[in-house]
Design a protein that fits this description.
Elements lengths: L9 E7 L3 H16 L2 E3 L8 E6 L6 H21 L5 E6 H13 L5 E3 L7 H9 L5 E2 L4 H10 L10 E5 L1 E2 L10 H4 L4 E2 L2 H13 L4 E5 L7 E2 L6 E2 H9 L6 E5 L8 H9 L6 E3 L7 H6 L6 H14 L4 E8 L6 H14 L3 E6 L7 H4 L6 H26 L3 E9 L5 E5 L5 E5 L8 E9 L4 E5 L9
The structure holds iron/sulfur cluster (SF4).
The site of iron/sulfur cluster (SF4) has 10 residues, from helix 6.
Length: 459
């Protein structure tokens, strides 16, 4: 598909909900819309096509989508009165789970795309224009991967950090989660395609690649006679000229194998910052969640990772108020948080996801108790985040500079722990890794000063 000439181009707006994967997918959808002749807009006002890229993880996800669609219905009617057309699509996990229902309940919707079908957006658009209302809900992940190879992600000028899809889907079936139903079984993208994408990004100036998927450390690909794991992929990607940093998200503790821990130890490009969700510190709750490990398994795993790479910092996801969670179970979660210590975390109240085993349970927890537990957990996690940032003051950290700051002469980069750091300097900092002495913490970022002017090149 060729880009349309400028004069004929319309406006496209992708509204993203939810996780990092969705942010990446939204960028992908935006790029495909550009190829189809719709320049990206910042809002619905001057868009000719609007795509809601939905998420099923957060509370009341479907209701939020219907409320957005209500507003789009009004806008579409206003446009029609002016003789203009507005095309509305719904994508993402809610689309996958409730596509038929969305088409039935919301006549404003012109097409629905599940998470594995974004590459078919031009076909969906054409059918919508012809008066059909298609729903693409199949799990054709290999086609999606092929499309990524044939129509690679566009990056912004001077983009320093980029996401790279390496894996889709999940086989774990945690009893609170819809991902195995909405994204399908685990499937890994071909290693040579990933390497080629990272090489292309690096030649365009990208210095940091974050490998993404629902369960990235389950990566396995055997298409060339050998089996590639995530550790193998890291060894290969760390050798790509220009790539200084490698990250990955998100992962399951069960798939954290020795080779991957060794990669954290041996490859300086693999950042010592790991998002490894534990969800709960209670063995009874972990069992009920079908996490297939205990809280002590998690503690021992963290000990092994820290033994291999002592400067590793951690982040996690937590769910409070899973059905059956007692006060003691919750105390066990607080104990695990104190034992491990997290640099940053995401925490949520449990909410029922239709079709998951957790949603069927009779022993749901009162909303008030969930609220109180979440507040207590978040206070503890926030105190750990603040303490972690405070402990960085006086240290010298490697910072990869990404962009100018808000004030003249200020530049912003990230530490290995993804903390944002503001430094006075010049534009030549952008895209380089420099030693920075952390001077003080701010509320959302750190402030520091350059230690030397030579780039520190990660091997
Ligand atoms: S491992 Fe993650 S994506 Fe997979 S089912 Fe569990 S929570 Fe969902």
């Amino acid at each position: 598909m060729r880009d349309k000439p400028t004069a004929e181009r319309g406006g496209g707006y992708v509204k993203s909900f939810g996780c990092q994967m969705n942010v990446y997918d939204s960028a992908r959808i935006g790029g495909l819309l550009e190829t189809a002749g719709f320049d990206q807009r910042d809002g619905v006002e001057d868009a000719d096509i609007v795509v809601l890229n939905t998420c099923h993880i957060r509370e009341k996800a479907a209701e939020k989508v219907y409320s957005e669609l209500g507003q789009l219905r009004v806008l579409k009617a206003e446009r029609a009165a002016q003789g203009r057309k507005l095309v509305v699509g719904v994508a993402g996990c809610v689309a996958q789970a409730e596509g038929d229902e969305i088409l039935k309940r919301a006549p404003v919707v012109d097409f629905v795309l599940g998470p594995q079908a974004y590459h078919r957006i031009d076909e969906a658009l054409a059918r919508a224009r012809a008066g059909e209302r298609p729903f693409y809900g199949e799990f054709e992940t290999s086609e999606k991967f092929r499309d990524l190879r044939e129509r690679p992600m566009r990056i912004a000028p001077r983009q320093i950090s980029a996401f790279v899809t390496v894996q889709e889907g999940c086989d774990k079936f945690c009893s609170f989660c819809v991902v195995p139903y909405t994204r399908g079984a685990e499937i890994s993208r071909a290693a040579p395609d990933i390497v080629a994408e990272v090489e292309r990004l690096a030649s365009d100036g990208v210095r940091e690649a974050t490998l993404i998927g629902q369960n990235v450390n389950a990566y396995r690909w055997s298409g060339d006679g050998r089996t590639w794991t995530l550790a193998d992929l890291f060894s290969r990607l760390a050798a790509v000229p220009g790539i200084a940093r490698l990250r990955y998200t998100t992962s399951h503790p069960l798939d954290m194998d020795e080779a991957l821990i060794a990669a954290h130890r041996d490859l300086s490009a693999v950042m010592p910052y790991l998002h490894l969700p534990v969800q709960s510190g209670s063995d009874a709750v972990l069992r009920a969640m079908n996490r297939r490990h205990t809280s002590d398994d998690y503690r021992r795993l963290i000990d092994r990772i820290r033994a291999a790479r002592p400067d590793t910092a951690l982040s996690s996801d937590f769910i409070v108020g899973f059905p059956g969670e007692t006060g003691q179970d919750f105390q066990d979660t607080l104990r695990l948080v104190r034992d491990v210590g997290f640099a940053s975390s995401f925490s949520f109240k449990y909410s029922r996801r239709p079709g998951t085993p957790g949603a069927e349970r009779a022993d749901q927890i009162e909303e008030q108790a969930k609220k109180e537990r979440l507040a207590e957990l978040q206070a503890l996690l926030e105190s750990q985040r603040v303490a972690f940032n405070a402990a960085c003051v006086g240290r010298t950290l490697d910072v990869l500079f990404e962009k100018p700051g808000r004030h003249a002469g200020q530049f912003v980069g990230r530490t290995p722990y993804l903390q944002s750091v503001q430094v006075d300097g010049s534009a030549s900092l952008i895209g380089t890794v420099r030693r920075v002495r952390i001077a003080r913490p701010g509320s959302n970022s750190l402030f520091g000063e350059l230690v030397d002017m030579d780039e520190r090149v990660a091997s």
